[in-house]
Design goal:
The protein has about 200 residues and is an all-alpha fold. The protein has 12 helices and no strands. Helix 2 packs across helix 3 and helix 5 runs antiparallel to helix 9. It catalyses: 2 (2E,6E,10E)-geranylgeranyl diphosphate = 15-cis-phytoene + 2 diphosphate.
Length: about 200
């Protein structure tokens, strides 16, 4: 297959590590059969294999293999995946998937029927705010990588981080009501983010 031959050539020419590819395949396979996650640790483990490999491969392409940079990249990628899960609660429900840990739903006495009913009342807001805050801290912990990396890669990473921050702010401002309106980035957001990313060099 041409696609596989091209991938093999890219792996060889850039000396890319194979583990990220194995991790991605593992996550894709899991996503076919696993629809619920009991604990936050389970969700993070999924992100470790579904999101973190992308960041690690990008760093490998630029010859960046410092352990601290890899750790910050993992934090950013996991946080971005979690943000996507929070954005897409309703979309994922339509696919019979829930990525919010069941432990957290139970803690805030939220049943799956509340998600099915697009109901953001009761303890939905504090539950979502707890998810948002935990994710924000994870994203912030990895954010210094945007200044460690130089040139275009650093600029693009700063934009990605700021995009995640903007979505988290929109989620927070809405009280986590992703049923009424899914938060997205607008052109105004992009202008503001690009200006900030350039200044943060």
């Amino acid at each position: 297959m041409p696609l596989m031959r091209n991938l093999a050539a890219a792996i060889s020419s850039h000396a890319l590590p194979m583990q990220p590819f194995y991790d991605l395949l593992s996550a894709f396979s899991q996503d076919v059969v696993k629809k619920r996650y009991q604990s936050f640790a389970e969700v993070v483990d999924y992100c470790r294999r579904s999101a973190n490999p992308v960041g690690r491969l990008m760093l490998a392409l630029y010859g960046e293999n410092d352990p601290r940079s890899l750790a910050m990249s993992d934090g950013i990628c996991t946080a971005l995946q979690l943000i996507n899960f929070l954005q897409d609660v309703a979309i994922d429900w339509d696919k019979d998937r829930i990525y919010i840990p069941l432990d957290d739903l139970q803690k805030f006495r939220i049943r799956e029927s509340q998600i099915a009913g697009r109901d953001a009342t009761g303890l939905w807001r504090p539950m979502m705010l707890a998810q948002i805050e935990r994710t924000r801290k994870m994203l912030q912990a990895g954010a210094p990588l945007g200044k460690v990396l130089k040139g275009r890669l650093g600029l693009e990473l700063r934009l990605v981080i700021m995009g995640g921050e903007r979505i988290l702010k929109k989620l927070h401002d809405s009280g986590g009501d992703v049923f009424r309106q899914r938060p997205v980035l607008t052109w105004r957001d992009w202008i503001y983010m690009f200006w900030r990313a350039l200044r943060a060099r």
